[in-house]
Amino acid sequence: MSAARVRRDPRDRSTMRRAAPQEAAKTAPVRQIADDSPLVAVLIDGGAGPLTPLDVEALTLGRRLAVSAGHGLLAIILSTDAPSGLAGAGVDRVWAPPSQDSDALSHQITALWHDLELRRIVAVDGGEAAEVLRRIAAVTEGQIRTNVAAIDTSGCLCLEDGATRERQRDDAPLLIAAPGRFRPQAGPASGEVSGDMSTGAALPLSPPRSSVPDAAQAAAPVELGIERGDPASLPLSEADVVLSAGAGVSDWALLHQVAAALGAAVGGSRVVCDAGLLPRGRQVGISGTVIAPRCYIAFGISGASQHLQGIEGARKVVAVNADPHAPMIARADLAVVTDTGAVLRALLDRLGDTP
Questions:
Q1: Confidence at residue 337, expressed as pLDDT on a 0 to 100 scale
Q2: What b-and-e string marks burial along 96-108, b requiring 16 or more CB atoms within 10 Å of the CB?
Q3: Which of 65, 144, 231, 325 could crosslink 174 through cysteines, CB 3.0-4.6 Å?
Q4: In order of start, what are the domains of the chain with their CATH numbers?
Q5: For the whole prediction, is pTM greater than 0.85?
């Protein structure tokens, strides 16, 4: 008779363990959490070896939030190997999802979020952890803030327009920090956190600003000119104008011609990216890329909540859709209710087929 397989509930508290001083040791005791202290969770990529710089920043932000509220700090490791240095980073609890499958991760962590009533879940942009947190926001339609540069009692300060503009936003339970904004006060470049991280002393919200040199010491400015980037290769988060398409667009060659004539970057809804019509890096929304362009033009996009949250920072929104009741039409500053193909052809005739 074959041995029966036991499937562990991802919400089982016994799967969590306290962060031991020698976290990397295989003999670290596994103990059930006895207290019900509120927890702030940090998603880290993990892996064998020391903490990565992104993981250090995520833990620094999480620890600051936990200490200020009197909560515990839970590290959720998206890897089969736990990195060293977790206890030194002030981690109180450690949890690794039973399955490392990308689709299962968001559901397992969502279940843990509701079961333990986690106060916050945070990550730093640039790794798998941030992508998982975006998927959690899409699955739960939970409030999320991205490109977070600072946070205090009044809310979040978020970067927009390719990190050239800052905007004050309301707080949210899900936070994705901009990389380089939540470094510990001191520490070697290897990613290890130095100093006594277990005393509860607050860490700075952002790295200190560099001092301005005296005029006598400053070098004379050099005029480098302006080099215009190729909109087709420009990351969506840095584009000034984004032309985005959804299921209501059928002529993709025409769409790309219009985008080239406008000098716009091409984006798309989750539906078209799932269908393989655009690469995943071109998906707009909190489950893809959160953008804040000067102008966002949406062709044939109905406007799911995760998509609308991803364009909250856009200064002007133009929507073209055959459905007058589409949420994107209500969101737009300028709405055109008609066939998307007709508008694309008219635009190309007006603009010409060259940038």
A1: 95
A2: bbeeeeeeebbbb
A3: 144
A4: 39-183+200-204 (3.40.50.620), 231-353 (3.40.50.1220)
A5: no
